[in-house]
Amino acid sequence: MLFNSDREIVLVVDDNPTNLELLYNALGSSGYEVLVEMDGFSGIEQAKNYPPDLILLDVQMPGIDGFETCRKLQLDPSTKNIPVIFMTALTDTTDKVKGLHLGAVDYITKPFRHEEALARIQTHLKIRRLSLELEQQKQELEEIVQKRTAELTCTLQELKKTQLQLIQNEKLSTIGQLVSGIAHEINNPVGCISGNLEQASLAVKDAVDYIRLYQAKFPNPGIEIEQKAEEIDLEYLLEDLPKMFLSMHTGIDRIRNISTSLRTFSRADVDYKVSVDIHEGLESTLMILQHRLKAQNYRPAIQIIKNYGEIPKVECYLGQLNQVFMNILANAIDAVEEANLGHTYEAIKENSNHIIIQTEMKDEHQVAVRIADNGMGMTKDIKQRIFDHLFTTKPVGKGTGLGLTIAHQIIVEKHGGTLEVNSEWGRGTEFVVTLPIV
Ligand SMILES: Nc1ncnc2c1ncn2[C@@H]1O[C@H](COP(=O)(O)OP(=O)(O)OP(=O)(O)O)[C@@H](O)[C@H]1O
Ligand SMILES: [Mg+2]
Question: Please, are residues 425 and 378 in contact by the beta-carbon 8 Å criterion?
Fold first, then answer.
């Protein structure tokens, strides 16, 4: 059977051929496509196979009656939205109400009053048309909203990333500039002292030799000179002078090392990868954190235990990598100090604050850096959130909740590595950084 899909379709289910014919003619001449069935089951089948826009349903039929047919139509998702109008010869109000309760949209009483029946049918078809349009518009709107939301979410993520990048660059360049500035300023006077010290120690050695020679040649220089020698403790002075110079040398060497570390650390502004000795990066970072590690009046120094393995140089952004080490180590110090809270100096000493830094080959293509502390550790809940933007458990002013987010971005996105954490509340924390060698 061919149907004209432009016309609205009305399915009439009635066991009375006279009624069927009447409705068929009336609806057909009003421009509707009319399908007819003579019992409930056939009506349901027809409605499923070729869904009409409206169903006119007789109440009293052999087999299943109109109510049962309506119930079945309602249960099937493919037919439940088709409006049903009951046709009933009964003037009984209970039946009408029952029909409406079952989901029918209206009823027509028999014998039909032609105009009234048509008007009702037209009204419901119109409602159906409008609600279909509305549904379609709603769906289109929902699609648009979904698309926009997805776009916005994307943009928001991009923005967050950019913001982080900006903060990170800002942090880096501020630290970098400051540090390299200081290193540079220290370098000149240190060079000057170191050069002069060399000369001075040679001159002092000559002077000492000269005095010794004097003493040998003139063992009795007279009371005035002997008195002066005693006054200034000449013997001790001659012995101590070379040692003083030696310790000054050591001091200057230390300052020079610090300055080198500072400059290593601050090679941050380099925006391309370089081949880096990870240990050098760790050392310079530790040097900068020295002031936080040393002993305080409430606790002994935090010990750094280094288990450096044999690892090759790694291609990376050194300044950024140092920043990762800095963030992880600073967190470790915070955690150790938090664990110390409420404990006496003696108790803390017993438990020995420490941070273990271990480097090793993870496999032939990757190195691993493990930084473990014996601080207070994390609960499961905190552990899940540590890499979240702005997540912090520290008081305002102490933590911003950016350290690990930045570290994660640097390691994972910039270097294609991984950053993992192992931690248990009360037992300390270990961060594992893995980096591809090339
Ligand atoms: N070693 C650690 N031991 C215990 N908790 C830690 C450790 N490292 C990080 N955390 C937890 O993860 C949170 C987030 O760390 P993150 O470094 O991102 O921010 P923050 O240290 O709070 O602030 P900042 O931006 O100054 O670094 C911390 O507030 C802390 O609760
Ligand atoms: Mg931090």
Answer: yes
Read off the pTM.
0.58
Q: What angle do CA 413, 282, 165 make, to 5 degrees?
A: 30
Contact by Cβ (8 Å): 71, 57 = no
**Which residues have CB under 8 Å from 377's CB, separation 6+?**
335, 423, 424, 425, 426, 427, 428, 429
The more confident residue out of 256 and 341 is 341
Note whether 98 and 67 are within 8 A (CB): yes
Spatial separation of the C-alpha atoms in residues 13 and 42, rounded to whole Å: 8
Question: Measuring from each residue's beta carbon to the nearest atom of ligand 1, which residues come in under 6 Å?
Answer: 327, 331-332, 335, 373, 375, 377-378, 382, 386, 391-394, 399-405, 429
Q: How wide is the angle at C-alpha 401 spanned by C-alphas 399 and 407, nearest 5°?
A: 115
Q: What is the whole-number distance in angstroms between the Cα of residue 381 and the centre of ligand 2? A: 17
Q: Please give the domain boundaries of the chain with CATH numbers for all domains.
A: 9-112 (3.40.50.2300), 270-438 (3.30.565.10)
Q: 39 φ, ψ to 5°?
A: -150, 165
> Tokens for 49?
């196979």
The string of pLDDT tens digits covering residues 196-243 is: 999 999 999 999 999 999 999 999 999 999 999 999 999 999 999 988
SS3 34: strand
State which H helix or E strand residue 184 sits in.
helix 114-217
The most distant pair of C-alpha atoms in the chain lies apart, rounded to whole Å, by: 157
pLDDT digits (tens, 9 = 90+) for 2-15: 444 578 999 999 99
Ligand 2 center to 256 CA (angstroms): 29
Tens of pLDDT, residue by residue over 146-190, are 999 999 999 998 888 888 777 777 776 677 777 777 777 787 788
